[in-house]
Design brief:
Elements (H helix, E strand, L loop, with lengths): L1 E5 L8 H10 L4 E5 L12 H14 L2 E10 L6 H17 L4 E5 L7 H21 L3 E5 L7 H11 L4 E6 H6 L4 H8 L3 E6 L20 H6 L6 E4 L16 H29 L6
Helix pairs in contact: 1-2, 3-4, 4-5, 5-7
Length: 281
């Protein structure tokens, strides 16, 4: 398992500071917020992208993904959305990031119409993303909060240039258990965003393990060779505690959850072998 955190927890921080914090606290990667408020976004010059990549490499940290704000299920013309998607893919490719995060954004539309927008736009850009070594991940969010809703779109797209980003908060708010979300997303899953909050009504970010989200259950069904990315939403909750002071404990909590999940799998394997004495270990 590899670990990352989102730059959303360090609003406006330069790449050097983010990468240094990741390296110092044992994180393997960074999810970079692609917004004009941040050092890198689709309008950033090539020289700045190259400098950021050098900084990440020097720190031994990879760019896990580019967190964009394109809304693929939103009403309106396709052209601006497609242009934004291609720009995000270009940024990710320059940073050697394998994934681009996008939102659904289809609130207020009938389900069929929102799905149709998302399928059409993702299908149009998926081959472009694949050629650049990037996969566009539709996040479980807003109009498509659950794994089932995101899978409904991705099953129709059916292209390896697209996939899913599982935000554990939103699937929980949507009434899905982690096991249900994991089954729905199946082969679509890119990586998992983890976080913690006090309740469905109080979403101010907490340290991992300090809230009510089913993180242990989510980690238990996560791919053992996958990524867990801590999205600490400091940008939207300025009164939340500063992220750097929580990084060590957050990483430790994820390691505990991963170890517990692995131990459970080992016990299940041992029990199965005990029940089938003819099976070679």
């Amino acid at each position: 398992m590899k670990y990352a955190f989102s730059a959303l927890g360090l609003p406006g921080a330069d790449i050097d500071r983010s990468a240094s914090l990741a390296a110092a606290h044992g994180f393997d990667g960074l999810e970079l917020r692609a917004h004009p408020e941040e050092p890198l976004h689709p309008g950033s010059p090539v020289a700045e992208r190259a400098a950021a990549l050098r900084t990440l490499r020097a720190a031994g940290v990879s760019a896990l993904g580019v967190a964009g704000y394109a809304k693929v299920a939103a009403p309106g013309d396709d052209a601006p959305v497609l242009a934004e998607l291609r720009a995000l893919v270009g940024l990710a490719a320059d940073l050697e990031a394998p994934w681009v995060r996008v939102f659904p954004g289809g609130a207020g539309l009938p389900e069929a119409a929102a799905d149709a927008h998302a399928v059409r736009r993702l299908s149009a850009v998926a081959p472009f993303a694949q050629r650049h070594g990037v996969r566009i991940l539709l996040e479980t969010h807003d109009s498509h909060r659950t794994g089932a809703a995101v899978a409904r779109v991705l099953d129709r797209v059916g292209h390896p240039g697209t996939g899913a980003l599982w935000d554990v908060l939103h699937t929980w708010l949507g009434g899905e258990s982690p096991a249900q979300s994991r089954r729905a997303l199946a082969g679509h899953l890119g990586y998992i965003q983890v976080k913690d909050v006090a309740s469905a009504q109080e979403l101010t970010p907490l340290g991992l393990g300090a809230g009510v989200l089913p993180l242990a259950e989510a980690v238990a069904v996560a791919p053992r060779d996958g990524w867990l990315c801590w999205e600490y939403e400091k940008r939207w909750y300025p009164d939340a505690a500063e992220l750097p002071g929580r990084l060590t404990r957050g990483r430790e909590h994820l390691e505990i959850l991963v170890a517990a999940a692995a131990a459970h799998v080992d016990q299940a394997d041992q029990a199965e072998r005990a029940g089938h004495p003819g099976t070679m270990p």
